[in-house]
Amino acid sequence: MTTMQTHVVRRIGIAANAAELEAALMRLRSTEGRVPQALWLHSYAVCEPDGRFGLACVFQAADAATLQRHADRCGLPAHEVLPVAHTLVEQAFAPTRVYLVRRRHAWPRGTDLGRQGAVARRVADAVIGREVSWLHSHVVREADGRLGTVCLYQGIDPAALARHAARAGLPADEIVPVLGRVVVRDASRNAA
Prior knowledge:
Blueprint: E1 5-15, H1 18-30, E2 38-47, E3 53-61, H2 64-74, E4 80-89, E5 98-107, H3 110-126, E6 132-141, E7 147-155, H4 158-168, E8 174-183, H5 187-190
Helix pairs in contact: 3-4
Protein name: DUF4242 domain-containing protein
Organism: Piscinibacter gummiphilus
Pfam families: SCO4226-like
């Protein structure tokens, strides 16, 4: 039996409007079970900087190649396929003013990430706690072997998240609003 690993699949700017975004989600649903060893857990719909809509999809899969086959099958590009090294849950998902913050190639080792995470938590609590609240993060392995993150924060606006990142010494390569969350299945119930 193949070991399944959690991945984040980033689909950037795949829809111009809500109808196209719904059609993309329907294509994902129609592919359910058609690609062996690709299990869709949930997705975050985001508004890209150019006004288009995208998705950050969380899957359990045998490997990145399986998710590329899945992308080909459903006709939705996989701009990034990132293996999740660890998921950090700070708070349950909040339904309002949630942003996806992408930190690319930020840490060479997990110990660096742990130290930086502690600094980020202190900055958020002490300096801008009313503006930013960390919900959870997926630690991903970048193609170059370094670690990055796909984080979800509740915040008053993108500028507050950028200030938080700057004060904590963290990159914030991408800050996009999350429009909603599509839960296909609960990952904790599917853990094997």
